[in-house]
User: What shape does this take?
Amino acid sequence: MIPAVILAAGASTRMGRPKALLPIGRDGETFVSRLLRTFSEAGVDDLVVVVGASATAVSEAIARMPVFARVVENRGFERGQLSSLVAALDVVDRPGVQAVMAMPVDMPLVGAATVRAVAAAYRRHRPLVARPVLGGRHGHPVIFDRALFVDLRGADFAVGARAVIAAHLCDVLDVPVTDSGSLHDIDTPEEYERHTGLRLNGRNVEPGGDS
Assistant: This one.
C-alpha cells in the first residue's frame, strides 16, 4: 500500500489566502478537491491531507468533498513542509505500507496518469525514491520508500526532504512523463492567473486574461 499525502498546511503568505481552497476551474473544484479526485482516479485508496495555518476552513471543506480523505493537523507547520510529511507518517506508517507519496497542494494540475506512472515504476523497481521528470526537471508526486521514514523523521526541517533525496541519489528513480502539471507550483496571484486563467480580485475570483 502507498498512501498519498497532500501537504496543505502552509500559510500561503504570497498568495494571500489558503491555496487549498482556491478554485481551479469554473466547476467549483478547488486545489485540494482536484488533487483528491486525481489521486482517487489514479487508484490511490488511502488519502491524507495535512492542514495547518487554515486548519478549520480546509478541514470543513474536505469533509464536504465526495472523495474521502483523512485529515491530519500539523500544529508546527511553521517549521516547513517536511514537518507536515512527518506528521502524516505518524498516521500512515503501519504494517503493509510500502512507501508514502508526497504531493504539495499548490501543484493541482498534475494528472492521474503521472500518479499511476510513478507508482507503477516504484512497484516495479522498488527504489528508495521515485519521482516524475520532464525536460530535466524533477516534479511531484515523490514516493519515499518506508526504508527512508527514519531518515525523513530525523532530517532538518529547515532543509526539507531534498536533503534525504540527495543522500540517496544512487537509488532515486526518475520516471519520464509528459505532464507539465507535475512541475508547476502555483504560489502567487500571477502564477495562479497564468496556470488557471482565473484572477484574484480582493476576496473574489474572476475570469483572467482574455477569457
The two ends are 42 Å apart (CA to CA).
